[in-house]
Amino acid sequence: MLLALDFFDKICYHTPMKKLYYITTYGCQLNVHESEKLAGVLEGLGFTCATSLEEADVIVFNTCAIRAGAEDRAFGNIGALKRLKKENPSKIIAVCGCMTQSAENAEYVYKTFPFVDIIFGTANLYLFKQFLENHNGKHKMYHSDEYNLLGEDMPKFRTSGENAWVNIMQGCNNFCTYCIVPYVRGRERSRSKEDILAEIKELISSGKYKKITLLGQNVNSYGNDTKQCNFATLLKEICALEGDFKLTFMTSHPKDFSSEVIDIIKTENKMLKEIHLPVQSGSSKILRAMNRGYTREKYLGIIDEIKQKIPNIKLSTDIIVGFPNESEEDFQETITLLKYVQYDNVFAFMYSPRAGTPAAKMAGQIDQKIKNLRVNEVLACAKEFKKKEVENVTNQRKNIKNDGAISPN
Fold first, then answer.
1. pLDDT 10s digits, 291-345
2. Considering the entire predicted model, what is its pTM?
3. What CATH topology corresponds to 161-272?
4. Are domains 161-272 and 313-409 of this chain identical in fold?
5. What is the CATH number of domain 313-409?
C-alpha cells in the first residue's frame, strides 16, 4: 500500500484573483497527485488558488480511508465548513476521495452535512469538471464502482516542487485483511507503457522536474494485467530516456519484489538508491493472518539481497502494531526485525479496523493501551533512542497484566 501520512496538503500557490479555490488533501502521495488533477481542472476553468478556506469560492476536501483517524479528522473539518456555507451560500463545497468511494461513507456525508454540494469517490474523479459545470445549487451525491484509470488525461497543476508524480497503475489485487484499498480503488489496472513514457518525456522537456516518482498501490505488479511490459522493463526504458532527472517509485509489495528490479536500481545511474518496502509485521504468524503473501524469512532474504547488491541503499518501511491476536512474542519479532534491518526511516501505525475488511471481524482485537505502548516502542527503536527509553516503554507494557486481547464475547 502507499504510504498514508495523514498530512494536509494545501494547494495554494497563486496570488488570489477573482475566482478562488482551496484544496485540502488527506492521506498518501496518490491523493496528493489526484489533488493536482483536481487543481488542474479548476485552473482550467479560470480559478486560482486561495490562501484560506474563507475566501475560496470552491472548497475541495480530498479524503483518505486507510485509517479511522483520517476519516474522523475529515468528518470534523467538514462539519466546520457549515459556518462558511451559511455566511456565503454561493460557495461550492466538494468532498471526494477514498473515504467517499465507500457508499456507506458517501451516504453519511450526504445525510449529515447537507451544506456539502458535491460528493463523489475515486471512481468518479475524472468527472470533476462535469460536476462543477452542472452544479445548480443542489446537494448531490455521485457514486460508481466502474473504475477507470482515474483521470490520467486530466490536466495537472503540479505542486510538489521539482518532484513530479506519475501514476503507472491503479488499484490492488492483494486483499490484505486489514486494508480498505481494494474496496475503494478497485482491481489493478496498468497504464500503457507508451502513455507513461509520453508523460515523462513531457516532464523532462519542460525542464522543471529533477525527480520523477512512479506511483501505484503495488508498482511491482505493473503489467500483470496487460502482459505487455513488466515493472523492470518499464524502469529500464524510463532510465534510457535522455535528460537530467532521477527516478524512484512507491510503493512496493515484498511478495512481488524481484531480483531484476534490485539489479536495475543498482546499475542504472538515474535510479535513486532508495526503496520503501513495507513489512507490516516481523511475525510470520501475523503476516499470514494479514494475507501478505510472504514470511519473515522471505522478507529478510529480499533485504539481504538488496544490501549485498546496493550497500549504500536507503531503506524505509511501514509497521502495523496491534493487529488482531498479535501476542507479545509476535510483537518482539517485529522489534528484532527492525534491529536487524536498521531502516533509515520507519512509519509505524496502530491497527485500525476498517469496516468491510476481514480483520475488522477477527476475534482477539488488541486493547488501545497495548497499541499505544507498542507503537511507541517501535518508534523508539527506529529512532535509536537510548536503551533506557526503550526499556521504560517495555516495562510499562509489562505492567499490563495481559496482551490486551479482548474476548469476542
1. 999 999 999 999 999 999 999 999 999 999 999 999 999 999 999 999 999 999 9
2. 0.86
3. Transcription Regulator spoIIAA (3.30.750)
4. yes
5. 3.30.750.200
